[in-house]
Amino acid sequence: MKITEIETIPLAAELQEPIWDAQHYIPKRQALIIKVYTDQGLIGLGESASFGGPIETTKAVIDKELKNYFIGKDPFDVERLWDDVYKGTVQHGRRGIVIAALSGIDIALWDLIGKATNKPVYKILGGYRDEVEAYASSGFYSEGRGLPQLAHMMETYVKEGFKTVKMKVGGMSAKDDLKRVQAVREAVGDEIGLAVDANSNWDLPTALWMAKQLEPFNIKWIEEPLMADDVTGTAKLANSTVIPIAGYEQDVTRYAFMELIKNQAVYYLQPDAIWAGGISECKKIAALALANHLAIMPHVFSSGVCLAANLHFIASTANAHLLELDRNENPLRDELIHHSLIHENGRIKLPDSPGLGIELNEEVIRKYTVS
Ligand SMILES: [Mg+2]
Q1: What is the CATH number of the domain that holds 68?
Q2: Could you tell me the distance, in angstroms and rounded to a whole number, from the CA of residue 30 to the centre of ligand 1?
Q3: Cα(339) to centroid of ligand 1, in Å?
Q4: How far, in Å, is the centroid of ligand 1 from the Cα of 225?
Q5: 190: which of 37, 62, 126, 343 lies 20 to 30 Å off by Cα?
Q6: Cα(311) to centroid(ligand 1), Å
Q7: Claim to verify: residue 73 and residue 180 sit in the same structural domain
Q8: Shared domain check, 134 and 20
Q9: Same domain for 227 and 137
Q10: 33 Cα: distance to centroid of ligand 1 (angstroms)
């Protein structure tokens, strides 16, 4: 089988109610969908992250540069192709946009391998579980969302069957954020796992103080307390609190995660298959974590393709913890793929069809494609 073409499809959907976390205002959701075509008629699907930037730049990296590494090649040679791109782009790649672009193609190659062999991706990678427990990722800041609205919203996820929920912090004064946490803890009850995500907006003194205040609320993990670059600060925080630290979704490749591991900075590592280097690289990060008795809990915050890719990664990874199931408004997650990956009591079953087990709804693609 030979790769004949790679298509990049930029999608964007305006939100009815914009949301924000401690660092980012989110008025729309966007996704760069990847289609890898072959001479046998099979098409592999993937997604490349474009967080924090215009979608056109990630698209250009694939269209003008990375595509050339893949045309005419066998998608089964995914390991060598990844290495060729990494080494070939190293002077301006290594982190950021090139690795995000590569991630989407890598996912599409795994989808092709699954389709060509008639097996789900997670079974090819080494199946570990056929069903994955998810947590409800929500509790953002939004216009008119006061304490009662926030508390009610988080309570609805518990009623839907989620055992763990996550909310945003770091976007207000420490004291106001504590009031939000208190309101949510009271609403969801003591039995539910409650995690907080500061999106890298605290400095070390604030994080140390907050961790102490948060301990009585029995917080399941603190996510991205500091800047991702502050590995030693994060390690200091991890050392000072019984609350496990999770991070950093912004990190990519084995090398960044190895720094976190070596410095004992986090317990939950959060690579995202569409961002950190694809499924291939996420498996290597998971192996590093496994050897160091740490858990994987991927960042998942984009389209249905991103959700599927990370779902297969988790289902094939012994030390994977929970799936992040974004509960904010996002038609690119809910409408883009036929038979959306719907949770039941906070759990998602793996599709048993070949590859990622998803098909794009072309009408939805046309609706949200940006030129
Ligand atoms: Mg996060």
Answers
A1: 3.30.390.10
A2: 17
A3: 26
A4: 10
A5: 343
A6: 17
A7: no
A8: no
A9: yes
A10: 21
Query: What is the whole-number distance in angstroms between the Cα of residue 205 and the centre of ligand 1?
Result: 20
In-domain check, residue 219: yes
Residue 86 lies in a domain: yes
Instruction: Tell me whether residue 371 is in a domain.
Output: no
Residues 233 and 163 in one domain: yes
pLDDT tens figures, 67-117: 999 999 999 999 999 999 999 999 999 999 999 999 999 999 999 999 999
Centroid of ligand 1 to alpha carbon of 52 (angstroms): 13
| Single-letter amino acid, residue 20 | W
Judgement on whether residues 221 and 74 belong to the same structural domain of the protein: no
**At which of 74, 92, 118 does a domain end?**
118
Question: Tens digits of per-residue pLDDT, 228-283?
Answer: 999 999 999 999 999 999 999 999 999 999 999 999 999 999 999 999 999 999 99
How many structural domains compose the chain? 2
Domain residues for the domain of 269 are 123-359
Residue 344 lies in a domain: yes
Output the CA 161–ligand 1 centroid distance in Å.
Answer: 22
